[in-house]
Amino acid sequence: MIQIVFAIICLLPLNQAALPLVINTWHFENAAGAAWSSLQKGGSVLDAVESGCAQCELEQCDGSVGFGGSPDEWGETTLDAMIMNGDTMEVGAVGDLRRVKNAVGVARAVMEYTEHTFIVGESATIFAQNMGFMSEDLSTNQSIAIFSKWLQQNCQTNYRKNVFPDPSKSCGPYKPNGKSWRPKHPKGNFDPSSHDTIGMIVIGEKGQVAAATSTNGARHKIPGRVGDSPVAGAGAYADSTAGGAAATGDGDIMMRFLPSFLAVDLMRNGAQPTVACKTAISRIKKYYPDFFGALICANTTGGYGAACNKRPGLSQFPFMVVNPQTKQPQLQKVDCF
Ligand SMILES: *[C@@H]1O[C@H](CO)[C@@H](O)[C@H](O)[C@H]1NC(C)=O
Ligand SMILES: *[C@@H]1O[C@H](CO)[C@@H](O)[C@H](O)[C@H]1NC(C)=O
């Protein structure tokens, strides 16, 4: 038994802390590679998280990042993104961004060129245009096809409740249903296959922390819906005195618990990254046992971990790691609990 345990430990030498560190959600290998090469070229940790997320926006990672994915109830793709500097605690974020592909770039511009933190909707588009970003249609044949199919299926599934006509059978427009009732079993329309937000943490050689996220949100969302990704402390958090964290999953639920902030704060108080991630997920699980979500955590010495909530469709959560031990982006997996 002791030998077996020893062998297992020897097989996991790559789980060691080393700096610099790039870690991101899901199997987005090129994103990890882009962030790593940005660091190799002398980029800052902020440059690295920005290039990593921008790479996913370009590649339309899993259809859930960038243009042409997750059409809303009107068929439009809208983007949410944020970036955080853990040295200064500056944040730049955009929500419900329309017709601009490089959402994390616009988030960085909010941080660099304004005193604000968060700019949303059509006004974020105008801001982006003024800052030199190109404005273009985010629809693709695929997003149009997803939208048409949804219309043909009587707008199923959707995120409406307590409205008339019955949202489980019909398209809108909807009106509040006079008598307010609560379904015994919330329908949980969240489809894990279409919610693979990129969240990335980069820790520099001196322990500087940056984090960023980018997503096109939830498929068939109600127009104007903004998820957890661009919300500091929810989608991601970075603090160079403690560590960084980033989330993926059902943002509508996760943002109520600020899991990224919580995990970083736990690491500040001495928790190991894996434990911090797990505790933050447990906090949500208590109220929503079947929620879909995962968290990555990294501390300032390059220790890292991840956790996810076990549910149908998610028994393991994949994430990418690059550090001087792995040298290349390496896929790792954590068992959900
Ligand atoms: C999208 O659809 C149009 C019209 O059917 C077609 O002409 C075009 O080639 C398609 N584009 C791609 C990238 O498939
Ligand atoms: C960071 O995490 C690693 C791995 O869990 C741990 O060994 C190390 O002590 C942690 N560093 C700090 C500063 O807590």
Automatic annotation (TrEMBL):
Keywords: Autocatalytic cleavage, Hydrolase, Protease, Signal. One of its GO terms (biological process) is proteolysis. Substrate binds at R225, V226, G227, D228, T248, G249, D250, G251. It catalyses: N(4)-(beta-N-acetyl-D-glucosaminyl)-L-asparagine + H2O = N-acetyl-beta-D-glucosaminylamine + L-aspartate + H(+). It holds the Pfam family Asparaginase_2. CDD domains: Glycosylasparaginase. GO terms for molecular function: N4-(beta-N-acetylglucosaminyl)-L-asparaginase activity; peptidase activity. Residues 1-17 form the signal peptide. The active site is at T197 (nucleophile). Belongs to the Ntn-hydrolase family. This is N(4)-(Beta-N-acetylglucosaminyl)-L-asparaginase. It comes from Phoxinus phoxinus (Eurasian minnow). The lineage of its organism: Eukaryota, Metazoa, Chordata, Craniata, Vertebrata.
